[in-house]
Amino acid sequence: MADADSILIIGAGQSGAVAAAALRDLGHEGPITLIGREAHAPYERPPLSKAVLQAAEAHAQTAVHPGGFYEQRRIALLTGAEAVRLDPAGHLVHLADGRSLRYHRCLLATGGRARELPNLPRGTPGVHYIRTLDDAAALRAGLTPDARVAVIGGGFLGLEVASTARALGARVTVLESAPRLLERVLPPALSDWLAERVRHAGVTLRLDARMARCTRQPHPDESVRHQARFTIELQDAALIDADVVVVAIGLAPEVSLAAEAGLALDAANGGIVVDAQCRSSDPDVYAAGDCASQHRRHLNMALRLESWQNANEQARAAAAGMLSQPAPGEPYPWFWTDQFGCNVQMLGLPQPGLAYACRGTPQSGADAPKFIWLGHRDGIPVHAIAINAGGDLRQLRVLFEQGLRIDPLRYADETVALKPLVKACQQHAAATP
Length: 433
Description:
The protein has helices at residues 14-25, 51-54, 69-72, 133-142, 156-167, 188-200, 256-260, 308-322, 390-402, 408-412, 418-431, and strands at residues 7-10, 32-35, 75-78, 83-87, 92-95, 100-102, 105-108, 112-114, 127-128, 148-152, 171-175, 204-206, 211-218, 228-234, 239-242, 244-247, 251-253, 272-274, 285-287, 292-296, 301-303, 334-339, 342-347, 355-360, 371-377, 380-387. By secondary structure, it is an alpha/beta fold. The chain has three domains: 3-113 and 251-322, FAD/NAD(P)-binding domain; 116-247, FAD/NAD(P)-binding domain (3-Layer(bba) Sandwich); 341-431, Enolase-like, domain 1 (2-Layer Sandwich), CATH 3.30.390.
C-alpha cells in the first residue's frame, strides 16, 4: 500500500520543498521522498546574490522550512543524492549511488543550471557562477575592498551581484552584450534610467560589450585560490582588468532526466511541457519551477518563468494535481529584485504595442526613488514596473487580474489618490454592461 501511494520529488529546491509541504497540507498520508543533489536542506535562492553574498551568517535565514520540519511532516529528505535516470514505465528513479526508488507519482523540480562560457568554465580559479550556497560562499571570499570585479551579464542576477560587490567596496565593471539593460523586460526609458542608476553607484557599465578573449594569470599568492588576474578583451579592442570574474548569462532548464525519459519538451523555451496542474506528457510525472513550460492565460502563450512566485505557485498546483484536487487559480506573473538601493517589482511582461504612463518621478540619483511605470493597451494594464513602490503595485494588481481599464492621465497624476482611483475603475467596470 505504501509504494502504491508514494510520491517522489526530484529536486530539493524551492519548488520541491513547497510541493512536499503542500502535499501534506492537502491531506496526502502516503510516503513522500524529496531528493536533493546538494548537501544542504532546501533553501531559497534569491538571497544568494544579495544577503548571503554580503554576510555568511545570512545563510541561516535562507531555509525554505525550519529545522525539524521534514521529520515532523514525515518527509524523507535525501540530501547529497543525485537522480540519474527516470523510468516512467517501471515507475522507478535510479540514483547515482545504485539505489532505485519506486513511485506512484513523481514531481520533477530540477530547476536549472547556470549557462557557462566555454572559455571560462565552472571550476576555474577566480571565475564564479552563482547558483548554490557554496557558489555564493566562494564568491564572497573574493569580494574584498578594492578587488576588481568583472560581471559578465547585465541581467537581474548580474546586477544584483554588482550591487552587492559595490556595497562591499569592490571596484565593479558590468559587461552587457545587449544595447541596453534588461531590454526584454523593461521599456527603453526605464532601461536608460537603470543604467544611470548603476553608474551613479560607481559601477562601470559597458553596453554592447562583446568579449573577444579572456586571459588569466594565477594570483601571485598561490594560497589565494578565489582570485586571479584576468584581462578581458572586448571586440572593440577595449581591455578590462579584473581579479574576480562573475559569469551571469542566464539559466538553462535542467531537463536531462525528462528528455531521456521521453517526456515532451517545449521547442521554444526548452522546458518540460505541463498542463494547468503541472502534469507532463506522462500522466504520473509532473514538473514545476524553472524546468517547466506552462501556458499562461494572462499572456496567452507558453512560458518558462524563472521566479520565486512561480516556483511556489506551480509547486502547489502540482501537489493538487497529484492528489486529483482542483488547481489553484493562476496568479498574474510577478517578479522582484533588490539592487542599488531599490526594490524593483514587476507585474506581467512587456508586449508589443504597449503605451507607458509613469506615476512618480524617476530620479536616478535619489537615495530612494519611488515611481511606477504602467504599461497598458487602450487603458487596460498589462505590464508594470514599481521602484520602491510595492505597496502601490499591490493596489493595482486587481486591475491586471481582472483586465479593468484605467485612465492613464489620472493614474499619472499624483494628486489623484491611488486607492480611490482603483476602486472607481472597479465600480465603472461593474456598472458597464
